[in-house]
Amino acid sequence: MNVQYVQGDCIFTRVNKITKQYEYLTEDIDTDVIIVGGGVTGAILGYYLTKNNIKCVILEKSRVGHGSTSITTSLLQYELDSTIMGLKQYTTIENIIKSYRLGVKALNEIQDFIEKYGNNCDFKRVDSFLYTSKEIDKNKVEEEYQIRKDNGFKVEFIDQSSNPFTFDVKAGLLSKDGGAQFDPFRFTHELLRVSCESSLKVYENTEVVSITYNENDVIAETVYGHKVRGEIIIAATGYNTQLFTKREFGTKTTAFNLATKPINNLEERYKSIVFRDTEVPYNYFRTTNDNRIIIGGEDINFLPDIFNEQLCIKSYDKLEQRIKNLFKQHKVEIEYRYCGAFASTQDNLGFIGKDPDRSRLWYCLGYGANGILFAILGGIMLSELYLGKVNEDLKLFDVDRFDS
Ligand SMILES: Cc1cc2nc3c(=O)[nH]c(=O)nc-3n(C[C@H](O)[C@H](O)[C@H](O)COP(=O)(O)OP(=O)(O)OC[C@H]3O[C@@H](n4cnc5c(N)ncnc54)[C@H](O)[C@@H]3O)c2cc1C
């Protein structure tokens, strides 16, 4: 079956008129690091490796940023998909707090990039808000607030009496500067632009069809028969990893997003916060610079062909109803509907590091709702690893951690 990973009218690839195209590979080449995949993860890896003077190339089978990067909500938060107590059965509280701190570090890294190279991707550092409108979930939010506060995070508790929003909040946890938002398609192109001005090489329409692992090198063969020789190869192919391994890395679902038309007189307070509720599956929303709202949620079991229209329509309709209920004071009209594969893990973390059986095969897989922040951490830690420094935090993202 031809597996479809993205479907619909994605806002970020529709509103952007990026004409930059990269050549396809027409010769055999040598490099140090071969990155397979030209989504946001591949671009982040390219940026950090190049910054560390490591020679690398990106091989992308279609066009840059048109995989799951085109449908990500890009609602960035240091916190994970579940609460600390919800995750406790799969990992330790210490590890969760550590990953929250790494999330803050990744947010700061993106902010530094923007400050250095200019804000060409609508980046905005914002607060993040976790809330419930259900009496029964109040304790969950209170508990989360207390643990984060005890661990030094800048948090504020909000209850019904202090709720500044126009929708019902029984309990809420506001994290100061705990989030960010941007346009992921433009961010990806920006990373590539900056890195290609240095030494990065990017090839579009260059699918890797086979890989040979040798004692002294690794060779990726591309669809038109050209070979790329490197010291290592990094899988940055998102939810599509069959080329590298038979291993199933996460639990796949199909996730849905809607983007509204620009909303007149949208209140300022909604523009400086990203929102997520405690429902299972949870719903989340953010705004854009031109006053649209992007809402996501209503995930269902993965549909490999994504063309089960009935099921898709059901999820889109539920999301539309939800956003209209949240913003009753406004005329809300939906302009874009899109969906695609999403993969989650028990501890909500992605996979970064070496394959347990092949030392020349490395992974950078941003699974879970914090995929972009994990890719930033991957870029930093895998560059260090290539230069011989093992970062202890890599253990959190170990490729093997669920097998032992
Ligand atoms: C609906 C949705 C909402 C999300 N929201 C958020 C969010 O708010 N915040 C967040 O941090 N994360 C979020 N995520 C996760 C985030 O989107 C992913 O972590 C990120 O997009 C993954 O990017 P990627 O570059 O790894 O994958 P992709 O963008 O899919 O890129 C992989 C690339 O590899 C290429 N490729 C595949 N096979 C080959 C091959 N053999 N040869 C060459 N190229 C190949 C593909 O063509 C593709 O372009 C969300 C995901 C979804 C689906």
TrEMBL record:
<keyword id="KW-1133">Transmembrane helix</keyword>
<dbReference type="InterPro" id="IPR006076">
    <property type="entry name" value="FAD-dep_OxRdtase"/>
</dbReference>
<dbReference type="Pfam" id="PF01266">
    <property type="entry name" value="DAO"/>
</dbReference>
<feature type="transmembrane region" description="Helical">
    <location>
        <begin position="361"/>
        <end position="382"/>
    </location>
</feature>
<dbReference type="GO" id="GO:0005737">
    <property type="term" value="C:cytoplasm"/>
</dbReference>
<protein>
    <submittedName>
        <fullName>Oxidoreductase</fullName>
    </submittedName>
</protein>
<dbReference type="InterPro" id="IPR036188">
    <property type="entry name" value="FAD/NAD-bd_sf"/>
</dbReference>
<keyword id="KW-0812">Transmembrane</keyword>
<feature type="domain" description="FAD dependent oxidoreductase">
    <location>
        <begin position="32"/>
        <end position="385"/>
    </location>
</feature>
<keyword id="KW-0472">Membrane</keyword>
